[in-house]
Structure formats: C-alpha cells, structure tokens
C-alpha cells in the first residue's frame, strides 16, 4: 500500500514491442513514464529537485518559486509544489496545449504564457528576469544536478533490473537532458558497453520535448561524453510514430515519445541482436487539443 501520491513516482512498466519491431533478434521495450502520477517522466526530477531543495534550504514555504517549462516539468512541479504547500509560477509559450495549462492550474500553480515566437528560450529569459529583479527562486531544471540524479537513482536501476541486466541500447529524447544524463551515468557504471542514444529534431522540425539548443541555452547538466550516438527525427516522423504507437501497440503518448520510438525502431533494423529500451515520456491525453492525432 502507498501512503502518499509521491510513493507512486517511479517503478513504471516496461512493455515489449509486439508489432512495430520487425527484427526477431532484437527485443525492443518501451518504458511507460505516463504511469507516473503526474503523467510523465518529469515527476521523478521534479520530486527530487523540490525535496532536496527544501532539505538544503535553497527555498522554503515563504519563497516564490518560478520555472520555465515546455509542459511536463511544469505539471510535475505544480503537483509536487502543491503537496509541499509551495507557491510556484510556471512560465511557458502561449502555443502550449490548453490541457497543460489547465492541469498546472488545477494543481494550484500560477501560469504565465510568453509569446510563441520566442519559444522556451523566451520563457527562460522571463523567469531569469523575475529572479534577478523580484526575488523569485528558480528551480532551474537545466542546471540542477538533482534533475539528472533522479534518473541515476531510479530510472537507470529500474531498467537494469527489469531487463535482467541485458540492456544493450538506451534511447531517449533530449530536452533538458536530465533523463539521458542520469540513466546513462548509471547504466555505464554497470556495463560500459551499453550504447546511449539521444534523439534530436532535424533542422526546422518542432517537436515538443525534444530540442537542439542554441549554445547559450544548452543545459548545464548536459555532458556530450555520456551520449554515444545521436539520431535525428523529423516532426512528421515523430508525429506518425506517435499515431502508430497508439493504433498498433496501444501506447498513447506525445510526439517526443514518437520521436524516440522512431529512432529506436531505426536502430533495431541495424542490429544483429540486442535489447533496446526506449523512453515513452508521457501520455497522449495532454495533446488532444493539438493536431497530433488529427
């Protein structure tokens, strides 16, 4: 029995691709992070960042917290801040889906929308100005070591255990890069030959949750040495794979998960044998007002 909603974070299911993977010598597993209580992989990092920040005294119940987000981290932070009785403002682009905005508000957060044409970078600039000028405290997922350490202590060990220590390739979309950094660090300690594959968008593709950052905005937690290979996917490829995941595998997710799955399937075609784990980072229901499933 769980005593708190926080006890339900992590230990998400790993399910095998039964339709999309056509290579009989490769096992492809999807890790279903939408089973976290806040609906995404970001619950892990948000919980770790808030819990440890409070314990260190980085902020307290009188602090005004702020964070820029593309969506999932914001939802997770709103949920966990609410549980701890913290005041948080979440900043994101005005072209974010209404489901994301309403979910953050339901958890009690203040939501500020910045112009779409400045993207997540503009949201980050807005948040940093509030820290500088109005005394806000930023969680700062992009440079907070508690982000990647959440995955070092949970996501990585779960994958290692649930594949019976047989994983050969780990595939993850790269946004803040916390998931891939922490999971890579753990898995490489267990077996340095495990290949870590990061997924990025092709030029001019817009995929929520997957980024190619301009140099000045590159997350400080990112270490290129922890990624063995990068696979680029297009916006259309990510969208079509999200649709196929739902229709053919019964896995309802967002576009970044479709991008990771597309990369994992491309990888599977090139291998003589292997065990691949691909992160399905959230659920598809927070994209229903977008054109993803049209």
Determine the mean pLDDT.
96
Strand percent estimate: 15-25%
**What is the second-level CATH architecture of the largest domain?**
3-Layer(aba) Sandwich
What share of the residues lie within helices?
25-40%
CATH level-3 fold name of the largest domain:
Rossmann fold
Can you tell me the number of structural domains? 2
Assembly of the depicted chains: single chain
Show unreliable segments: none
Q: Strand order within the widest sheet?
A: 1-2-10-7-8-9
Count the strands? 10
| Name of the CATH class of the largest domain | Alpha Beta
Domain Tryptophan synthase beta chain-like PALP: 6-282
Keywords: Amino-acid biosynthesis, Cysteine biosynthesis, Pyridoxal phosphate, Transferase
Catalytic activity: O-acetyl-L-serine + hydrogen sulfide = L-cysteine + acetate
Organism: Zobellia amurskyensis
Written description of the protein model:
With 294 residues, this protein is α/β, with parallel strands linked by helices. The protein folds into 2 domains: 5-41 and 150-287, Rossmann fold, CATH 3.40.50.1100; 42-138, Rossmann fold. The chain is built from 8 helices and 10 strands. A 6-stranded mixed beta sheet has the order 1-2-10-7-8-9. Strand 4 (87-93), helix 3 (98-106) and strand 5 (110-114) form a beta-alpha-beta unit.
